User: Fold HPS6 biosis of lysosomal organelles complex 2 subunit 3 from Neolamprologus brichardi.
Amino acid sequence: MAGLVLKQLSDFGDFSHGKELTEILSLNNNEQINSVRMSPDGRHIHVVLRKPKVSLVTFDKYERPQLAPNQKKLDLCVNVPIVDIFYLEHHGGSSSGAAVVAVVYESGKVEFWKFQECKSGWHLLQTSQLCNSPRAKVVSVCACSNLIIWCEERPPSESSPVLSATRNKLRYCVCRRDFEVNETAVSLGGVKIALHNNPDFTVVSSGEYVHLLPDLKSKPLLNISKFFLSWSPRYDSFTVSTTCKNTPLKKLSAKESDFMKLVIDCLGYLSPLEPPEICSFSPTACGGLLLLLSTGWLCLLQKDGVLRQVYKLEDNCLVNYSTHTSLGMYEDTLVLIMGQNLHLIDLNCGTGLEKIVLMSEALLYTNRADMCTPHLLSETGLFVVVSRGADSRDCSFRIKSPGLSTVESIHPGALLVEAVFEEACKYYQQRSLSSTPLTVDSLKKGGRFQAPISLASILFSYLSADKLMGSLEAELKALVSLEEVKGTLVRGSVKEVEAVCESLVEKEVLRLLSSPELDKEALLYLNSIFSVFPSEGWKAAQSALQLHYNGEGFLSSRAPPDVWKTVLSAAALPVFELLCRSVFHFQPSWLPTFLELAQKEQGSTGLGLGLAASSWSFSSGRGGDCNERNVPLYKRALCLLSSLNPDRDQQQDLEVELLLVSGRPNAILQALRILMSKKQWYRVTQVAQKCCKQSPLLNKEIFTILLCEVAHHRDLDPYLDLLWTLCPEDFTVTTILNLVLKNLPSPNTPSHSSSFLVTVGLLKPLLRKVLQRETKPSQRYVDILQSPSFPPPALPRQPTEQSGMLVGQIVTHTGTLLLA
Assistant:
């Protein structure tokens, strides 16, 4: 943008009463002029005056000047202050000559005026009342899409006690009303309160967002003035931000409309801080906001709440409220008018492009017909910034740069070198013990700091040889790709945005899981990805681990060992638990097979050496104590499952599967007990048949538990043939009968003796099998083996105190060994 000049578009001679407009603007007195507003098409200029009396004066540019003398002007002289004027979108699709403007008064009254050049000029459509309360006082107002949004002050009730200083500052509320512009009227919806009990806010509309900025002129409470809000009526959400932090403090739903509840948890964080004040602002077309801070920084508040520092004014440029400022953004160029200096700034790199010294103060405005070009309004007319090649004979402003007769065109290499020295100044100044400020000139001439000089020389040489562009090609391609993604997110359809998000999440998850080591920040970032994009995160995890489910309960993975090492590592925010949570949310039936796969990968040959000394390897002994960083995977999965609060039956089913998949004896026995408590006997026998093959010791434990159950009840009778096949090789008849005897129902129960007889009768096939295994069967068991296939009828009931004697008699009858 080198070589720019100002070209005059109008000297106000083509506006009605142009001389009066020039006289008003030449007053250059903020005490007399309240505000100046320009219509989107540049044909109407509205000036709100404070003195000598409150009034609104409008100056119009006619396409057919001969009609001007007969047209009615929009000039108002009132007793109530005018808060603001703004244009409304006309949804009727009429011609550009049908402009509708709203004039809002402090009392809440609003007048809707319409301009029609072919008829009578300006005429009043209707008068309405914005506020519900006649005592309300409007302090700021704007239009956003089809909404009129304002901040009003509500005086305390006469019956209420005297408010404290704090409550007295929080007597405002932010309200909204829908509107629709028709040919003959403006339809208004009902009043809705968006925020209440808030301080005096200036409402600023930008795209689909409304920014609520503290009005520092009203001397708000110290802590309250340290932050501002961004409100999205479309998404019904608030963002709380501050000028000393480049990311939002919090984002939350707008369902909570009490101001103090929104910000109460931010006050403690902000109390020791002193954020710079907002001295000037201007909305952008994309929902953002340009902010000029008291520190001299020009910042861009993006619609996502990120505050980006763009440009720092010279140290001798003091910014305060008395300084005349005007801001504007035109594509990739920021324009700042400060006093009589016009700054052109590159938005992408934050570099000052040109500086133009003006003859008088001016205001920036946007012309709807040419929104990419800066337009200016001054006391001598309307101007536009053009290239030097354009005709500039009518320019009323003097263009100069310090020490030069024309604006200096700076070489990109020189800009880069200058940026190196500016950053070096900041770096060395922070580490210097001297109070003497470092400057770019002192770095260049002093010779004490060789690093920035060397770097500047290298960069300049690279630029001269066109080598820097080649070395930065990969980074530049990444930046271009990023810009394309951002463009898709802004302009794309819902499906396109979803596809972009899914692709980005997949790349980020793969990048993080492929990292040799994840630090705490990376783990937090990975957790945030799964929190914000749960569905996309789950798909990305399947892709990164290359999971394949064959539909028959088998899950496989082709991911390299390094990825699994990252997944299975123990950390403050472990990845394994994060993936288990995602599996449970989207495919709960996969959780046991995922645990089985993780255990397989943990013990695989490829990870053997690394896992031997790893903090996430298995504990050495069965049932051994595991320290915090040496917890088996199945216990980590069980701990996560209990925290997810699933359905009780679903939780128990998954617990059983996880315990069985672990392959650990204690876990398998715990799973059996859960199944027995649920009386799922068929499942019990299936698990027993499968797990008894793992080891003789586990076989003995399982058979003992089931044999005790047989002695207690008859629920396992249909499965006895299967159970007898599980009898350990070292079990003898004595062992079996002793176990049965010890686990019979209490001797005090009347059915004790009959239960024993039934149990002994059912044990006959098992006892015959065990006796056949012995090389020399003992004749002492003949009584048992020759007993009837079915137990004899139950004996007559005896008194409870005699039940022990009855059992002894039965045992003597069945074999003397039972009494041994």
About this structure: The longest helix spans residues 494-513. Confidence is low (pLDDT under 50) at residues 93-97, 392-410, 605-628, 787-820. The chain is about 35% helix and 25% strand.
